[in-house]
């Protein structure tokens, strides 16, 4: 069941020059060291295509499979991370700024359950709790 949608954002150190922009486009990221999620992930494939269509070569400095590490690298001013707002918002305690990315790219999240099998009371309570926690983490 899908119940959360994240939009792609740019995560950068608080003192980064691109904090003056919102949204940030591939053209503004030209020449900027990028922190990207692994190249075989579906959203990375879509992101690569967006840069290709914009005619902007990516300057990949760090490639990681962890959104948490992408945010930490950005906080240390090692580059600009492009990840889902769903994950970026979980790391607002770090010294980062989050800016919209254009063009619009989204990612849906949810919990997989077995079709035709009713959830136990404990499973439903866990899903409800998870939904509340995620919703709270996404508030400004």
3D structure, described in words:
The protein is α/β, with parallel strands linked by helices and 140 residues long. It is built from four helices and six strands; from the N terminus they run ββαβαβαββα. It has helices spanning 42-54, 67-75, 85-88, 121-137; strands at 2-13, 33-37, 59-64, 80-84, 96-100, 106-110. Strands 1, 2, 3, 4, 5 and 6 form a six-stranded mixed β-sheet that branches. Helix 1 links the parallel strand 2 and strand 3 (59-64). The two termini are 25 Å apart.
Gist of the model:
This protein is of the alpha/beta class and 140 residues long.
Pick out its properties.
single chain; 140 residues; six-stranded mixed sheet; globular
Order of helices and strands: EEHEHEHEEH
Estimate the mean pLDDT confidence.
Answer: 91
Termini, distance in Å?
A: 25 Å
CATH fold call: D-Maltodextrin-Binding Protein, domain 2
Uncertain segments: none
Helix share, percent: 25-40%
Tell me the Rg in angstroms.
17 Å
What would CATH call the class? Alpha Beta
The structure class reads: alpha/beta
Shape: globular
How many independent structural domains?
1
* Assembly state (oligomeric): single chain
- Our estimate of the beta-strand percent is 25-35%
Separate helix tally: 4
Number of strands: 6
CATH architecture: 3-Layer(aba) Sandwich
Largest sheet: 6 strands, mixed
